[in-house]
Amino acid sequence: MEQIIHTHRPLTGVIRQLRPSDLPRFAEHLLRLDDQSRRDRFNGLTHDGFLEAYAERSFHEGATVIGYVEGDKVLAAAELHERAEESEPTAEIAFSVEHEIQNRGIGGRLFQRLVAQARGLGYLRLQVTTHSNNSAMKALARRFDAKLSFQQGETNGVIDLAGEASLDADWRAPADLGRRGTGKAIAA
Fold it and tell me: In angstroms, how far is CA 72 from the centroid of its own chain?
C-alpha cells in the first residue's frame, strides 16, 4: 500500500487591507478562482466579465477589501460591503481563497481581521450568505458565532457585534479623572 503524504509550500505572505492600487491584483485573484471556488464565493458560476466588473465596483463603492498577499499576488480576500438599507449599522461579508491555499487557516485569519475592521467602522451586525453545500464557509461562520438559517437552498448567517464587549471600554477614563486633571492644571 502506498502512503500519500500531503505537503504544502510554506505560506510566506501577509494579510493587509488592499489599497486602490491593488484593484488589478484583486481582479486577477477573482479570475484565478477555479469553478468550485467561484461557486462558493458567488453562490453560482460566474463569467470573467462579471468578476472584472465586480472587482471594480467593490473598490469604487467603498467596500473594505482585506487580502492575503504573497509577493505581487492577492491569493485570498475578505470583503466588507455596507448594507445601508438596514436599520442598524450592518455589513455583508464575503471570502475567496484560491484552491492551492485552501484549508490552511487563511480564511479564519481573514475573518478575524475583517471582524476587527467591522468593529472599528462601527458595524453592529455582519451578514453572510452562501449556498447550502459550502461547508467551509458555514464552519467558519459558526466559529465566529454566526446564527445560521437555511432558506431556499441558501445558508444565511448573522454575526452580532453589538452584544460583545467593546475594546474601547478599556480606554474610557474614570468619571472623576477630568476633574482631578483640571484641578492639578489650575494649581500648577
Answer: 20
C-alpha to C-alpha distance for 62 and 81, rounded to whole angstroms: 8
Give residue-wise pLDDT tens across range 36-90: 889 888 887 789 999 999 999 999 998 999 999 999 999 999 999 999 999 899 9
CA distance 88 to 124: 7
pLDDT for 177: 38
Return d(Cα 86, Cα 4) in angstroms, integer: 50
| DSSP assignment string, 117-173 | HHHHTT--EEEEEEETT-HHHHHHHHHTT-EEEEETTEEEEEEESTTSPPGGGGGPP
- Taking alpha carbons only, the member of 52, 57, 58 closest to residue 78 is 58
12-51 pLDDT per residue, tens: 999 999 999 999 999 999 999 999 889 888 887 789 999 9
pTM of the predicted structure, to 2 decimals:
0.76
**Whole-number Å distance between alpha carbons of 93 and 97:** 14
Positive or negative torsion for Cα 129, 53, 91, 120: positive
The answer to whether 130 and 40 have CB atoms below 8 angstroms apart is yes
With residue 108 as reference, give the H or E element that holds it. helix 106-120
- Residue 12's nearest CA partner among 64, 75, 66 is 75
CA distance linking residue 72 with residue 87, whole number of Å: 39
